[in-house]
Design goal:
Elements lengths: L6 H8 L2 H12 L12 H12 L3 H6 L2 H16 L29 E3 L3 E3 L7 E6 L2 E7 L3 H13 L14 H6 L10 H9 L20 H9 L21 E9 L2 H8 L16 E15 L28 E5 L4 E6 L2 E7 L14 H6 L3 E5 L2 H15 L9 H9 L5 H11 L6 H13 L6 E5 L3 E9 L2 H7 L2 E7 L6 E7 L13 E8 L3 E7 L12 E9 L4
Helix pairs in contact: 2-3, 3-6, 5-6
Length: about 550
């Protein structure tokens, strides 16, 4: 399904794949394992196949009993984030990859009933034959992500009941004297039922390859396997603008006592249901805007303890105490930390950013705005680095003063990333003879090397800000959001702050941090945590959310 021009999908459906996967999951997901679900490759692939092959019409045709059976089967993957990882590397890390000496800084607690936490997935991959490659390494997908999609896609089939005691509309609420109160009307509940929580995996597309919407997901599988290794710089893991717009979905919230009980249970209870967990679902709305830090600007540093382990996930990887100033008219986001201001500019699709070859230090370093990524960059760069060390041994270091100052001024969290980018982009600085030799070597081996070339855009970091629209805030509470995107795998982290908590001290309006991935370019899926000042090594109240982007005006 991740390589689909519509013909592949139709052939698989004609061969009966949806029915086969559905029955396989129902009968064999817990085969030989009655604790809390399988954690191996088959269960993960089956989860993705189960969601990828389903359509709304098929789901509506399911009987209530079979729908509830599937929900019960995937439920452990949905609500046990301390047992099943929800990210390719724990979200307490922002600076990736983890360095060789990071093991000395990585901390894990032991949950007696479930094992180590946070969850690291190093080495979880398989080698496969892909086109002309016989050794393509593909990571095992996150079972929890697919399970959330399966869960919410079935839960949304049944509409939410409309309480008849609610005012009909907001205007009606004002007439009844409830105009200054936060709470839904019947019209607000109707709106929830009119829009999906998650959308079907493949939407109609006029492009030659509808599966191109899953490119970011595919590259996470092939690039983000080992948190100790670099992800490929020639592939995207987050497409610019993916998080912008109006999002609507639901969030699952267990009670504190129910969550604490789960932490202590080794065996999955026979009646492991949403009711037993006192699991409640609440609407979730946010409107997000995207801002980029463009060279020569410098990204805001990370927060946390600055110890290689805690990069400040409790504040979405942004230092505590930062003042966020957004000027939508000017298109600027300014993050003020201590006596320094970090400036980001609005991402506007189709419009160029402020990147200037004359001021971009990356372009100056390379001597060109062209960037070439070669398939065998790691080997090529290691050889080139050794040659550079020899040839530059007698060079006066004063000549590199500007570059050194740049790397020093940029946050230390970006030193390794920027250095790697610059060294890889330095390929263009090779002389013509070296390029010719590489071409002849490829001819001799009858193997053309895969290369990607693009223009530098100077983007060093991505920040997100937003809020609930006034209409949705009046119904479901007003919130503000801000956060960041992790470059290594495209993980999005957002802090949700109640905008009027002092007026409405409702239970559940605390500081929550959301982290997840944009899946298929249209679903935002992940987990939330009630963090505050909780140590990232300690499990805390946490559960799932899923959202889909709404078309403007819908």
């Amino acid at each position: 399904m991740s390589e689909n021009d519509e013909k592949n999908r139709h052939l698989l459906e004609a061969a009966g794949l949806p029915d086969f996967v559905d029955e396989f999951v129902r009968k064999r997901l817990y085969e030989d394992n009655q604790t809390a679900g399988l954690t191996n490759l088959p269960s993960t692939v089956l989860h993705y196949g189960c969601f990828g092959s389903q359509v709304q019409k098929r789901l509506k045709a399911e009987t209530t009993a079979r729908r509830n059976e599937m929900i019960r089967l995937v439920l452990p993957f949905v609500i046990l984030p301390f047992r099943y990882p929800s990210a390719y590397a724990p979200h307490n890390h922002f600076s990736m990859p983890l360095m060789d000496n990071s093991h000395a800084h990585l901390r894990q607690s032991i949950i007696p009933a479930h094992g180590a936490f946070p969850l690291y997935r190093s080495g979880r991959a398989r080698t496969a034959h892909f086109y002309d490659r016989t050794d393509l390494e593909i990571g095992i997908p996150l079972a929890s992500t697919a399970a959330k999609l399966v869960f919410f896609s079935r839960r949304q089939v049944t509409p939410i009941g409309i309480p008849i005691h609610l005012p009909l509309t907001r205007q009606h609420a004002i007439q009844l004297g409830f105009g200054d109160q936060i709470g839904p009307t019947q019209e607000d509940v109707h709106e929830l039922n009119q829009h999906q929580v998650v959308k079907h995996a493949f939407r109609d597309s006029d492009s030659a390859s509808p599966s191109s919407q899953f490119d970011d997901d595919w590259y996470r599988l092939t690039d983000c396997i080992d948190p100790m290794a670099k992800s490929s710089l020639k592939n995207t893991h987050y497409t610019y603008g993916s998080a912008t717009g109006l999002w609507q979905g639901r969030i699952l919230v267990p009670t504190d006592n129910a969550f604490a009980t789960i932490l202590q249970q080794v065996q999955m209870p026979e009646e492991f249901t949403e009711q037993q967990l006192f699991l409640n679902a609440y609407p979730l709305f946010m409107r997000l805007r995207e801002y980029h830090c463009v060279d020569p600007q410098v990204p805001v540093p990370t927060g946390g303890a600055d110890d290689g382990f805690d990069d400040g996930i409790s504040n979405a990887w942004i230092p505590k105490g930062v003042q966020v100033h957004e000027d939508q008219y000017e298109g600027k986001l300014r993050l003020q930390h201590h006596d320094r201001t970090y400036t980001y500019e609005a991402y506007r699709p189709g419009s160029p950013n402020s990147h200037n070859e004359a001021t971009c230090r990356g372009c100056q370093y390379r001597g060109t705005p062209n960037i070439v990524y070669r398939e065998h960059d790691d080997q090529f760069l290691s050889e080139r680095s050794a040659q550079s060390d020899e040839s530059d041994a007698d060079v006066d270091i004063d000549e590199d003063e500007d570059d050194g100052q740049f790397l020093h001024d940029a946050s230390t969290r970006y030193d390794s990333i920027i250095d790697d980018v610059f060294r890889q982009r330095d390929d263009e600085a090779m002389d013509e003879d070296a390029d010719t030799e590489l071409a002849f070597a490829s001819d001799d081996e009858s193997d053309e090397e895969y290369c990607v070339e693009r223009q530098c855009n100077g983007v060093l970091d991505i920040a997100l800000v937003g809020e609930t629209d006034f209409k949705h805030g009046q119904a479901w509470n007003h919130y503000k959001f801000y956060g960041r995107v992790r470059e290594w795998d495209g993980l999005v982290a957002l802090v949700r702050i109640p905008a009027q908590q002092y007026l409405h001290p409702t239970v559940g309006l605390g500081l929550w941090v959301f982290s997840g991935y944009i899946v298929g370019g249209q679903n935002f899926v992940g987990t939330w945590r009630a963090l505050g000042d909780v140590d990232p090594v300690a499990p805390t109240l946490e559960s799932s959310f899923a959202m889909t982007r709404r078309e403007e005006g819908s």
